[in-house]
Amino acid sequence: MKIDRLISIIMVLLNCEKMSATKLANRFEVSPRTIYRDIEVIEKAGIPIFTTTGSEGGIGILPEFKIDKSLFTRSDIQTILMGLSSVSTALPLKELTGTLEKVKNLLPEKQIIKANQIAIDLTAWMGNKSLLLFIEQIKQSLKESRLLQFSYCNNNGIISNRQVEPYQLVLKETHWYLQAYCLEKQDFRIFKLFRISNLVIDTTSFIPRAFSPKPLDGGDWINHKLIPIQLLVDASLYEKMMELCGEEQIKPLGKNAFLVDFMFVPDDYGYNILLGFGPKCECVGPIEIRAELVNRIEALASRYK
Question: What percent of the chain has pLDDT over 90?
Answer without folding.
Answer: 39
